[in-house]
């Protein structure tokens, strides 16, 4: 990323896709805090963010457990009119879930204009990560009723439940 940063610094007026490239690199790498810096720099220099920029930055917030910054980005998403974007809302849900704000993740889930398998799986995983097995199973049953099951989530729910039962034996 150091070389990419040097190349980026040499560009007179970087466009949004260049910022997105840097944001993605930092959000997936070892320096997610630099993605937050780039996002702020992007806003400060007048480059309009898009759904991708916000999504990459939310991923960094999740990696850093920076829920305050994530909530600020959510406000920006609403202000910029990207709230109906399911991809972006899924990133927001994931950020809340990984920061242990399951109730906020659930609220985002409730306002989703449409729910695909990924959306359901993010919330179910959130419940499982926070030891809310009953809520995960209840939501899984709701998903099966609405969309049909996914084999991966069924396996994950069963394995987590098995781990809980196994733990009680030890």
Overview of this structure, please?
This protein has 170 residues and is an all-alpha fold. It has two domains: 1-105, no CATH class; 115-170, no CATH class. The chain contains ten helices and no strands. The protein has helices at 2-9, 16-28, 32-44, 51-64, 67-80, 86-98, 102-111, 117-129, 133-146, 151-169. Helix 4 (51-64) runs antiparallel to helix 5 (67-80), helix 6 (86-98) runs antiparallel to helix 7 and helix 6 (86-98) runs parallel beside helix 8. It is elongated, with a radius of gyration of 18 Å. It starts with a helix and ends with a helix.
Whole-Å distance between the termini? 46 Å
What order do the helices and strands follow? HHHHHHHHHH
Question: What is the multimeric organization of the chains shown?
Answer: single chain
Mass-distribution shape: elongated
Low-confidence spans: pLDDT under 50, at least 5 residues? none
- Give the tally of β-strands: 0
What share of residues is helical? over 70%
* Estimated radius of gyration: 18 Å
Strand content: under 5%
The number of distinct helices, counting runs of at least 4 residues, comes to: 10
Count of structural domains: 2
Helix and strand composition category: mainly alpha
PPR repeats: 15-49, 116-150
Protein name: Pentacotripeptide-repeat region of PRORP domain-containing protein
Keywords: Repeat
Organism: Amborella trichopoda
């Amino acid at each position: 990323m150091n070389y990419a940063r040097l190349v980026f610094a040499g560009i007179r007026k970087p466009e949004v896709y260049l910022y997105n490239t840097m944001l993605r690199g930092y959000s997936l790498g070892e320096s997610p805090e630099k993605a937050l810096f780039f996002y702020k720099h992007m806003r400060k220099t007048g480059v309009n963010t898009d759904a991708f920029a916000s999504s990459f930055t939310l991923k960094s917030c999740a990696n850093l457990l920076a829920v305050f910054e994530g909530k600020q980005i959510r406000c920006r998403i609403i202000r910029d009119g990207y709230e109906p974007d399911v991809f972006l809302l899924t990133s927001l849900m994931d950020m809340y879930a990984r920061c242990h704000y399951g109730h906020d993740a659930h609220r985002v889930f409730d306002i989703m204009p449409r729910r695909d398998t990924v959306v359901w799986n993010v919330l179910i995983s959130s419940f499982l990560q926070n030891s809310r097995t009953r809520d995960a199973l209840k939501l899984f049953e709701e998903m099966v009723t609405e969309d049909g099951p996914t084999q991966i989530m069924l396996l994950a729910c069963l394995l987590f439940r098995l781990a809980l039962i196994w733990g009680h034996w030890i």
